[in-house]
Amino acid sequence: MPYFAILTNPTYGGVTASFAAIGDVILAEPGAMIGFAGPRVIQETTNSKLPEGFQTAEFLLEKGLVDRVIERKNLRKELGLLLEFF
Question: Which segments constitute the CoA carboxyltransferase N-terminal domain (predicted)?
């Protein structure tokens, strides 16, 4: 049975570091903020400016950390299609 992770806004902390990141397929809602620590903490820790859109679902999709960004209203249909595939 496949493991689908659905990331909503916000998804931070241990959830991201543990079971959210290990799904066979990782879906996220548009604009969802996803990460281990918040942007301010990361910026202060690294002493650097973060890129535009950092930690958004769309940014993570571009980096290959999320498989699809999909509206919540379309999740049922998308999950059905994924279950047929697996």
Answer: 1-86
CA–CA separation, 55 and 37 (whole Å):
10
- At the second CATH level, the architecture of 4-85 is Alpha-Beta Complex (3.90)
Question: CA gyration radius for the chain?
Answer: 14
CB proximity list for 67: less than 8 A, separation 6 or greater: 25, 26, 27, 61
Count helices and strands (H / E) in the chain.
4, 5
pLDDT digits (tens, 9 = 90+) for 12-24: 999 998 999 999 9
The residues facing 6 across adjacent strands are 27
Q: Tell me: the pLDDT tens digits for 40-85?
A: 999 999 999 999 999 999 999 999 999 999 999 999 999 999 999 9
Domains in the chain: boundaries: 4-85
